[in-house]
Amino acid sequence: MDLAYDRAKISTLIDQILENAQTLGYGSSAIFAIRLAIEEAITNAYEHGHEGLDPSTTVRIEYRVDASDIQVAVQDQGPGFVPADLPDPTLLENLSKPSGRGVMLMRAYMTEVSFNDSGNRVKLRYIKPK
User: Fold this and answer.
1) Which of 37, 78, 83, 101 could pair with 106 as two cysteines, CB 3.0-4.6 Å apart?
2) pTM more than 0.70
């Protein structure tokens, strides 16, 4: 699905993903974690990936929800970045820097977080605990 920046449509899509997860027995802590990670990924795509691009530029969001895991991919049309170059937001010298927190949260809450080679696509995976 390609989405222009429309908060209502984004919220509807996230709600749809989470409703599917609840139907498949994902608990409230999983729902919280997945929502936070998806919101961070989408926010980063629009705010950082599309910085300087036309506001109508779309972000591609793909997802799959099943009984064992949830996968969500978010791809912007920007030039990308190098995830390893992000400052560690937990270090004292980086506490006031605005970058790195979203990726840190995604990594903290999801089972797997990976980026494509150009850094403009993030894939999130949450494996349902047994």
Assistant:
1) 37
2) yes
